[in-house]
Write a structure and sequence with these properties.
Helices cover about 0% and strands about 50% of the residues. It is mainly β.
């Protein structure tokens, strides 16, 4: 079972990036999928999550209105569209999957984790 995150990079503030997380070895279409991030010297924090039933979403206050989480169950992939990026969005971004399909913001509620992709936003 693997989650492969990709799409990170170096961008200037105000620009956009789209992260992808492709699942393999398991059908993730019935799982809640989430994105977390960890900035240097800080703890990993919740960014966004999406359920498979109804596609309900949840966001951290710091990204609400700028980031959008979506999923393509046919491709076993979840996306994070990040617009109006700020230097404080700089972090390693991780995707995760939760067996039970309810919105969750705590890391310990997630069962599978990807390896992370670096996002760096310059001012």
């Amino acid at each position: 079972v693997q989650l492969q995150a990709s799409g990170g990079g170096l961008v200037q503030a105000g620009n956009s990036l789209r992260l992808s997380c492709a699942g393999s070895g398991r059908d993730f279409s019935r799982n809640t999928m989430g994105w977390f991030r960890q900035a240097p010297g800080k703890e990993r924090e919740f960014v966004a999550a999406i359920t498979w039933i109804g596609g309900f979403t949840g966001y951290a206050d710091s990204v609400k209105g700028r980031f959008t989480i979506s999923r393509d169950n046919a491709k076993n992939t979840v996306y994070l569209q990040m617009n109006s990026l700020k230097p404080e969005d700089t972090a390693v971004y991780y995707c995760a999957a939760k067996i039970h399909s309810t919105i969750a913001r705590r890391q310990d509620e997630y069962d599978y984790w990807g390896q992370g992709t670096q996002v760096t936003v310059s001012s």
